Amino acid sequence: LGPSSKFSRRWCMLNDGNFSYYESDKTSTPNGALKSTEIVCLSVNTPERHGYDHTFELYSDSERLYLFGTDDQDSHKEWVKSITKMFIPSNAEALLRLSFERIGRLKYKDGLNLQSPRVGWFALVGSSLHAYLEDSEEEEEIHLRKLQELSIQQENEVLVLVERGRTLYIEGERKLDFQGWCVGIQKAAGSAGDSLSQQQLTEADIPVIVDRCIDYITQCGLTSEGIYRKSGVNSRVAALCEAFRRDARNVRLKEEEHQVDDVSNTLKRFFRESGEGLFTIQAASTWLSTPEESKKISQYQLLLSRLPRVNKATLRALVNHLYCVQRFAELNQMNLHNLAIVFGPTLFQTDGKDYTAGRVVEELIEHYTDVFEVDEQQLKRQLDEITVIIKASGSAGDFICTVYLEEKKETAEQHVKIPGSMTAAELTCEILDRRKIQVREKDYWSCWEVSQKEETERPLHHLERVLPILHSLGTDSHLLVKKNLAMEAILVYLASKVDVSKHGMVKFREERSILGLGLNTGSFHDRYFILNTVSLRMYKEVRSNRSEREWQVKNLRVYLGIKKKLRPPTWYLCCDTQTEMREWFSTFLTVQYDGNVWPVDAVQTRVTRALPVDTRHGNVALIPLRGSENEMRNSVAAFTADPLELRQI
């Protein structure tokens, strides 16, 4: 061990599962020893962290930390490899091949076993966490920069990792090494530099900052004149860039808090300051060379195929966004040429003195569907959804609609002007005021979307904007104001919940049409479902390691009702009792609206209009829940009542 004031040179030995250290090679009695069963973690330190180039730390199950160093890198690697091999079990020996920064034993729970913790062996390697979990023979890899959520529950020392398909809870059995794991995983899950691949990423390999900015502009900025051409406030742009750089995963862009031009300039600055550039330093000049007209599409496709995975996914997402922006140029004044002038120098990081870079961007947008081989129908649906968003923003003026009170009949109808900013709570108050109905305590009046043909109904969230709902209603659907009789029980249930999640066995069926003849097939099967703050996941059984299906919770609409005729493909989830149905429904609501299920003031009054929540519009998946137990028992196919249906997007 090295000649440093912080270190004492010792003679070390590995023998029969023991790591011992002596005063010298002449000494027979060790100064100390560690059994392999006592070692729970080994951490490889960065050079000079402890004033010495080659060091590693050993953590024991008795909460002791041992620091060792060697004179050279080769001996350091040999000691790390040998010690690790001594305490890592044979079923996890494959972890030894990795150049890990930290390796060891941790207790964990996953979404399929929340009752008691199990033991797993983990290795932190760069931005990935490799693991051998109990009862699993295969190595798992968690891409930490792609986590949908990463948090620490300080009160019970639990590290929560939410990835696509499951949630992993890592428990702090020993405070000393758990702190090291938390710091290491948090650092690995963050941005590590200026290049695209070093950012926190979405599941589609797009930097989170790009995904969030594009989504915000699509929701709030497509009608903003001069979008991307106008400058934002420099101090606010710098603050946003820093927030994304610090932890993009936890940045939430909201209409009431952020300005369109600040967000658009944040996106441009990110690309301008990207270390390697979107087109990469090596390939940028090739992109800028003028291709022959007849070979233009194939040349761009070839160059696209050569880009790194993250760059390719990001370019596709950005060009798709710019294509949509210029499709609404009559509103935002940003046509193809204007966007190219702005984004050419930005993406190629040039001075913009000529139009070479702009020409490339203009041609990519103009030939977007051919270069990226886009599904025309999918693009049409996307543009239709954007049209709904724009109309909902109020640019298309107010709409007159018919709203019914308690039931659909002529004497109960009211004709109401619906401005783009009107919320469901405001519409409800409007109807009650017109009919001079006094709202008493615990009268949970709500606005409902009702479909007679589908025999479903959905209580609108009190902050949900009404206008987008009107655009999506079919001819057999209408809006109805009535009391939500289940709301008090829902609020009582939610107040008693410790954490915002639910899991359990539910009946599942998927129906498909046979050769288009309208004959439905499929029977109900037991499936295990987990609903958390991010997704609804379905597993074949409780012990399954991977989900069969997954739906993002925020993209779902929750409907109540019984459906007799369903157009395939359709997914059903059936609850056995009204109580169970209400619990699932309650959890959906609190997850989708971040706990804001009902206004704090139970007596609704027409005050300053509340700002709308972030609501997605267009072709979204549907989830109906409800049904009577008598109808369930009497149904020809058991459990066809009480359906919870997910419609495929």
Automatic annotation (TrEMBL):
PH domain segment(s): 1-88
Location relative to the cell: Cytoplasm
Gene Ontology terms for molecular function: GTPase activator activity; phosphatidylinositol-3,4,5-trisphosphate binding
GO annotation terms (biological process): regulation of cell shape; signal transduction
Source species, domain of life: Eukaryota
UniProt keyword list: Cytoplasm, GTPase activation, Repeat
All residue ranges annotated as the Ras-associating domain in the record: 397-486
Protein name in UniProt: ArfGAP with RhoGAP domain, ankyrin repeat and PH domain 1
